[in-house]
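As a warm-up, study this chain.
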Amino acid sequence: MGGYNLIVRRDGAARVALTASYNAASYNSPMHNASKQESPRTPTPLASRLAAVFGFVLLCALGALAAKEFSMPAAQPARTYPAHDDHPTEKVTVAVDPYDMEDKASVFSVNYRNNDYMPVFFVITNDGDQPISLVGMKAQLNTKDRSKLLPATTDDLLRRISHPSRNDRPNTLPIPLPRKEVKGGVSRKTWDEIEQAQFGAKAVEPHSTARGFLFFDIADISNPLPGANFYLMGVHDAKGNELMYFEIAMEKYLSAPQAKRPF
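Now compare it with the structure written out below.
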């Protein structure tokens, strides 16, 4: 509360002064100190936007890794692979490079080994001056126990990977409809990978190399490579003459130093 104090001077004159009953310093000090205390910092609009952009970029990067696309490995001339068979007279060389190791098989998004398939990188080089035909080509892998394995077809791979619950109803409509996934089916990405990876060349032009994967069904075969041999028949020259068959012992691959195996 405020009050009035009467102040009397020596000369007898008097005057009235208004004074505050409260201590002004005690009132202003807390207010002054409070003004010096910093309030908690809040993110500025710019910082919030930058954080949102960084999070979006990170999610996109993670999504790209999860959606890794198959890329066909580059091929070297067939004679540079440990497991090859060279026909100098016919100027054609064939090589095989099994993708039986985890680091090599990482080029695929599908784990074919878990589905009892072994991918084999197949390379054929034509050093001649005329094209060669692969239309009648027949590849075969003979294991030590005399099992004769043929490359899987696209349908074989899809059937093994998908295990569809219901996919045998024929399409009776006059126009084809887009293929849909069924329960336990394969994705479009897997379908595309299989089609891109499989060897599909029908000819090899002069002084060029063709490559692709052959997938061999190794169900119930624990160790298919030791003692196995790869055979290739049905390759024809430009005149239609069949070339001598190719034979490759898989021991050439198994005995090669790891550093010399092209990945």
